[in-house]
Design a protein that fits this description.
Chain B: One of its GO terms (molecular function) is calcium ion binding. The complex is a heterodimer of chains A (about 110) and B (about 475). Chain A is built from four helices and no strands. Chain A has about 110 residues and is an all-alpha fold. In chain A, helix 2 runs parallel beside helix 4 and helix 3 runs antiparallel to helix 4. Chain A is rod-shaped and about 80 Å long. The termini of chain A are far apart. Chain B is an alpha+beta fold. In chain B, about 60% of the residues lie in helices and about 15% in strands. Chain B is extended and about 120 Å long. The two termini of chain B are about 90 Å apart. The chains are: A mainly alpha (about 110), B alpha+beta (about 475). Chains A and B meet through helix 3 of A and helix 7, helix 8, helix 9, strand 2 and strand 3 of B.
């Protein structure tokens, strides 16, 4: 415990530079990665917002997209899902606000 | 309902009329015989026409119609009730026979058609009309509220701000830990020759895997390959997780994994954690489940504090591993009061499930950046245990007990490996067979092609000599 501090310079030096092994990052199989729940929810909300024309759904989809972006670890694989969710959400917003069926509700 | 039905029929009839009108005009251009044919066709398929048709049919020749008028009426009778509302000249008289009337009829029919058109448009746009009415009314009364939009934009801005603030805070905690334990003249510096992930001297100590996951690697010590410390901090950068953590409390954790050398570690399976966690560990972790059980405190000696549970293969091993110094410093009753909130678990095993078998695992909860001193003693456990386990050798009795269990485990592992290898071999064989079959199929296709080309060449050759014969003339 505390005596280990004093051992640094003595013959009891626990260090062995010869035994040093460089770091090899453990390969993580893509299936083991934690499931991106927020991205999944964002896609579902975006699709429902486009189909059922609920404004709240599209806005919530954007919020969850933002959360998924913040939690993104792998640039390549996660970006596809997030961009898909973003497109759905933006499409939902566009159809909700600028859509032809609701001239009275133009923003 | 009847309105919509009538509208549907009107639309259907409209389309029909256009076709029929064209045929009528054709009939006019041709001879009278053709006209009679066309008119009879017209009558059989006659829908109750609106003005357009009646106007176009005015100049029709009289004779044919007067004959077939009687036919008309019974045809029209079985048609639906609504159609009878629409009067047509064919029903009752011939326009040319009655002069002066057509104007009235025409005007009556003119009036009727707008009504029909109105019905039609009404059935088409009842929704839009009602919506227009609904929206016009509240428009005058209410202003449109933008609460949803404003709320969501605020939330997005809050998310963005929280992202940067949380990221910075996490980095602060990680750097504080590294400054305390991994930089110059600190415990890891004195125990390991190579710190950090990279190759040279100036490599960064911490590896940032994600915004809340940091890794620290140290290597170059006796008895072990290396040590990997993984800091899993709260997701401070993510506002939604932060809100969730208000409901479900979460802690910053640090996990130390020490990879022991093959020759340095004897048969030791030991775990220690808080009571509840110890029970779940014993049920879930494979090697503990297999080899070890919860050990009750032995009589006649100092033991760990009441709130900790010890899981071990045998009491002897447990007793040897939990030395007096450890008890005094960390695990005893007095010391545990200080470290109770920071110590989570300890797991020493030489049968660890996973790639590397001989491992020491320590899990502590991290305090905040300013209180890093709280876990100094806990972290100091690590090199102590590396040395302790590295030097420890079981007595022969204990060895015998542990030996049989491990042999079984080794045999089972070997069998599993063999099964896996066999399956892989079988798969490869099946794949090879498929490849061979495909290759054969291709080859046979090529053979067929070659045969065909040969046959064509033969035919061409057969044709050639004739030409030669001709030339010789």
């Amino acid at each position: 415990m505390s005596h280990s501090h004093g051992n640094a310079s003595s013959a009891n030096d626990p260090r062995q530079p010869s035994a040093a092994k460089p770091y090899t990052p453990r390969p993580v199989a893509p299936e083991d990665l934690p499931v991106d729940y927020s991205g999944f929810i964002a896609v579902i909300l975006g699709v429902s917002g486009v189909m059922f024309r609920y404004k709240i759904c599209s806005w919530l989809a954007i919020i969850f997209c933002a959360q998924s972006l913040a939690n993104m670890r792998n640039m390549e694989s996660d970006l596809k899902q997030i961009s898909m969710a973003m497109m759905f959400a933006i499409m939902g917003l566009v159809t909700n606000y600028l859509g032809p069926n609701r001239p009275a509700a133009k923003k | 309902m009847s309105r919509s039905f009538s509208f549907a029929i009107i639309v259907y009839l409209f389309f029909y009329q256009h076709l029929l009108a064209a045929s009528q005009f054709e009939g006019f251009d041709a001879e009278d015989d053709d006209v009679s044919e066309d008119s009879s066709d017209l009558h059989h398929s006659l829908p109750p026409p609106t003005i357009t048709q009646s106007h176009s049919s005015l100049p029709d020749p009289e004779t044919s119609y007067s004959d077939s008028n009687s036919d008309l009426i019974p045809e029209l009778d079985p048609e639906p009730h609504s159609k009878s509302k629409i009067a047509t000249p064919f029903d009752f008289w011939d326009e040319d026979e009655f002069e002066g009337l057509p104007v009235e009829i025409a005007t009556a029919q003119m009036l009727e058609s707008p009504l029909i058109a109105e019905n039609a448009t009404e059935t088409v746009d009842p929704d839009i009309a009602s919506i227009a009415q609904d929206t016009t009314v509240p428009r005058r009364k209410k202003k449109k509220s933008y609460i949803v939009e404003i709320g969501c934009v605020f939330f997005l801005i809050a998310l963005g701000i929280n992202y940067f603030v949380g990221k910075h805070e996490n980095e602060r905690v990680a750097l504080a830990w590294a400054a305390k334990f991994a930089s110059k003249d600190t415990i890891f510096q004195e125990n390991f020759s190579l710190l950090g992930v990279g190759e040279g001297e100036d490599t960064p100590l911490l590896l940032k895997e994600a915004l809340n996951v940091f890794k620290f690697y140290a290597t170059g010590r006796r008895y072990c390959h290396g040590l990997l410390a993984t800091m899993e901090l709260k997701s401070r950068h993510d506002l939604i997780s932060r809100l969730f953590n208000l409901l479900v409390p979460c802690e910053d954790e640090i996990t130390f994994e020490v990879y022991m050398n093959e020759e340095s570690m004897d048969h030791v399976v030991l775990a220690m954690a808080r009571k509840k966690a110890a029970k779940t560990m014993q049920k879930e972790v494979k090697d503990l489940q297999r080899f070890a059980g919860i050990v009750s405190p032995p009589a006649g000696r100092k033991w760990v504090s009441e709130e900790l549970g010890v899981i071990s293969e045998s009491k002897e091993v447990a007793g040897d591993m939990i030395t007096d110094t450890v008890l005094d410093q960390v695990f005893g009753d007095k010391a545990m009061e200080k470290y109770r909130k920071n110590f989570m678990s300890m797991h020493i095993s030489d049968q660890h499930p996973g790639k590397h078998k001989k491992m020491l695992l320590f899990k502590f909860s991290l305090p905040d950046a300013k209180h890093m001193d709280d876990i100094v003693r806990l972290v100091a456990l690590i090199p102590y245990y590396i040395d302790l386990v590295g030097r420890y050798r079981l007595s022969s009795q204990a060895r015998n007990k542990t030996e049989s269990g491990r042999q079984k485990a080794a045999e089972e592992a070997y069998k599993e490996l063999q099964n896996v290898r066999q399956e892989a071999l079988q798969k490869k064989k099946a794949e090879r067979k498929k490849m061979m079959e495909e290759a054969e199929a291709k080859l046979s296709a090529e053979v067929i092609r070659k045969k065909e080309t040969k046959e064509r060449a033969r035919q061409v050759k057969k044709a050639m000599p004739k030409v030669k014969m001709n030339r010789s003339h």
